[in-house]
Amino acid sequence: MPLWRFEIISRYIRTFDHTLLDLGNEEDLPKAFQAAEPWSDLIQKVSAQLCMPGNNVTVDECMVPFTGRSKDTTLVKNKPTPVGFKAWVIAQNGLFIRWLWHVKASPYTAIIVELPKKPAAKPQQGKKGKGRPKATVALSNTAGVVIHLVNMLPKQTYHVFMDNLFSSPNLFHALREAGHGATGTARPNCGITKELKLAKGKDKAGASGFKYNEVKSIPTIDGLIAQIAWKDNSLVLFLSTVYSGADNQRTPKRRKEPADKEAQSKLIKETFSDAVIKVIPIPTVSAFYNDEMNHVNRGDQIRSYTSYEHRFRRGPWQALLWSFLLDVALANSFILQLKTSQPRWPPYKTLESWKRCISDALFIKFAQESGERKRSRAEKEEDIFAIMKFLSFLAMTLGFMAVAASEDKYVFERLDKNDALLLVVDLQVGLYNLARDFDPTLYRDQILAHAALGKVFDLPVILTTSADNGPNGPLPKEILEMYPDAPLVHRQGEVDAWDNQKFRDAVKAANKSQIIMAGITTDVCTTFLALSLREEGYSVWANVEASGTTSRLVRDISNDRMAKAGVHTVSLFSIACDLMRDWRNTPGAKEMIPWLDKYFPVWGYVARAHEAAVNNGTIQPGEESLN
User: Helices 440-457 and 572-580, interaxial angle, to 10°?
Assistant: First the structure.
C-alpha cells in the first residue's frame, strides 16, 4: 500500500453517520460531542457492566488535547494540556467509570439544595426582608456535575473525593442528603467559615496563628460538615462529612521537610530538627485525601505511556475519539484484566503489551475475511473504499472488543492450602444476637468450625474485632485459646476492617493471594471487607455459614452482591473439601474426621460409616486408605 494511501485513512474514516447529527436544536450537544456520543455511551455502558465500583471514588476534570478551531475547546492555564476539550470524570484506581462532556452552555439540570436552618436575623430598618435566610440554593454548574456523575453509578453508598474546584458546603449537604460521604480541599471563597477564611488569607505572612501540623475543626451550623484547617507547608482547608478533624484522627506518614519559608521556618525547624524525612502523625483527612484523590490522574498516567502522538488540528470529533475514547477503552480493559483474579490468560503487565495483544487478535480475525486485491489502475478508488470500510469497522469494534475482552467469565478457581489466609472478622459474643438467619446453637458451632479450619490445614490466621470493650464483646474464648499467638487487631471505629492500617499490614505481611473469611454481620463486616479485598486483587472465599445477619433476605442480598463482585460465596464444608482435595492427603481423613465429629456430626457419621465399611471388608479395592 502506498504511503499516501495509508495516510488518508485517518482523514476519511468515520465512526458515525454525519447525516444523523442534529445541529438545529440549541439544547443538543455541539456537533463534536454528538459525533462522539454513541461510542462514548457504549464504552461507559460496558465499563459499568464489567466493573462493580467500591466505595471510594474520585471526581476530577480531564483534558483532551485539540489545537484546532472549535467553539467548544477550553483554556486551562498552567496545566500539562492547557487547550482542548474538557470532560468531567468519576474514576476509581485509574478506571474511568463515567464521564460527562464539558459544554459551555451546560445541558445538565440544576441541582437545588435545601440549606441548613438557622435563626433568622432581625430585619434592619429600611431593608425589608433582608434578615430572612434562604431556604434553598441552586448549585453551580461545576458542583452539579458531581451529583450527576454519582447518580450515574450503581445505587450504593459512596465516599466522593474532589479538589477545591468542586468543594462547597452546599454540595456536601446535597451529597449527604443523597446518602454519600464527601471529602475535599476547599477554597477560602467556597462558603467556609469566616474564621478559617481569614486564617488562610494571613498565612502567607505567617500570621495565621497555626503551628506546623496543627489542626482546627469547626462544624457547620447543623453539625453535618466538618470545616478543617491544617498547617502543612501552607494552611490547607478541607471539607468533609466523613472525617471530623479531631485530634485522635491522625495517621503516621513519612514527610519531607518543607521548603524553608522565612515567616514559618522557625516552626518547621522545631518539628524536623536536623531530620530531612520524619514520620509525622498527620490528619487522617489529609492522608486519605492524598491516597484517594489521584484516581483520575492514574488513568491519565496509564494512557500517557503509549498515547497517540499525532496532534489533531482539524476534525474536533477525531480528537475526542482517538485521543480520549479509544485510549480510555484500552486503558479500562487493561486495568480490568490486570485486577481480576481469574482471567483466561496470564495478565498483561504493561499497556503496550496489552495493545499489541488486542491489535494482533483483531487483524488475525478480520484478515481472513479480505479477498485478493485487484492491482489494475482502474480499481484504485474501489480499493481505497474497501480499505476504509474495513478500518471503519475495525475502529467501531475496537473500543467494544478491548473492553469486553477482559470480561471476567467464571473460571473454577481451586483453593490452595499453601496460598490461603484465614480471617476471623468480628465474630464477637455480643454480636451473636444479630445473627437471625441461623439457629443460635448451630451458628455458634459454625463460627468455631470456621476458626478451627486454621488448625486442621495449618493456615495462617488473623483475628480482628470492632469495639470489643463495649457491648460487642470479645471473640469467643475457644477461638482465643486456639490462636494465642495470632495477630489480633482491635478496631475502635473502622467499619470496614480494610480501612484499619494495622489490619491491612497484617494481611499483606501474610503474603497470601487467597482469603477465607467470615464475619458478623454478613451485609457489613463480611461484604465490605470482601469487596475491599477484591478491589486489592485478592481471591476471596466468603463462608456463608459462619457469617450471620439480621434476616435471610439481608443475607441473600449481601451474598448476591459479593458474588457479582467475584467473591466465592461458599459453604463451610465445601471450603474444607477444597483445601483437602483428597481424603488420602495430609491433612486428610485423619485430620478431617475429628473436625467433622465436633462441628458437623452428620458428615462425621458418613465418614465413620466409610471406616466401618473398610473394617467389614465391603469397601471397593483401592479405597482402603480413605480412613
Answer: 10
Q: Which three cell numbers stand for residue 567?
A: 467473591
Q: Which domains does the chain have, with CATH numbers?
A: 3-11+304-404 (no CATH), 164-292 (no CATH), 420-581 (3.40.50.850)
C-alpha cell at 548: 450471620
Could you report the per-residue pLDDT of 441-494, keeping only the tens digit for each?
A: 788 889 999 999 999 999 999 999 998 888 889 999 999 999 999 999 999 889
Which residue ranges of the chain lie beneath pLDDT 70?
1, 6-7, 9-12, 15, 17-19, 22-28, 105-137, 258-271, 308-314, 341-345, 365-411, 608-627
DSSP assignment letter at 93: T
**How many whole angstroms separate alpha carbon 541 and alpha carbon 367?**
43
Q: For residue 95, which of 345, 398, 300, 341 has the smallest C-alpha distance?
A: 300
Note the pLDDT of residue 424: 95
Q: What is the pLDDT of residue 366?
A: 64
- Whether residue 525 lies in the annotated active site: yes
Please report, for residues 425, 503, 573, the alpha-carbon distance to residue 476 in angstroms, rounded to integers and kept in the order given: 12, 20, 21
Write down the catalytic residue from 51, 62, 190, 525: 525
In terms of C-beta distances under 8 Å and separation of at least 24 residues, what long-range contacts does 302-308 make, across chains too? Answer: 302/94, 302/331, 302/334, 302/335, 302/351, 303/327, 303/328, 303/330, 303/331, 303/351, 305/350, 305/351, 305/352, 306/351, 306/352, 306/355
Which three cell numbers, joined as nine digits, stand for 333? 480493559
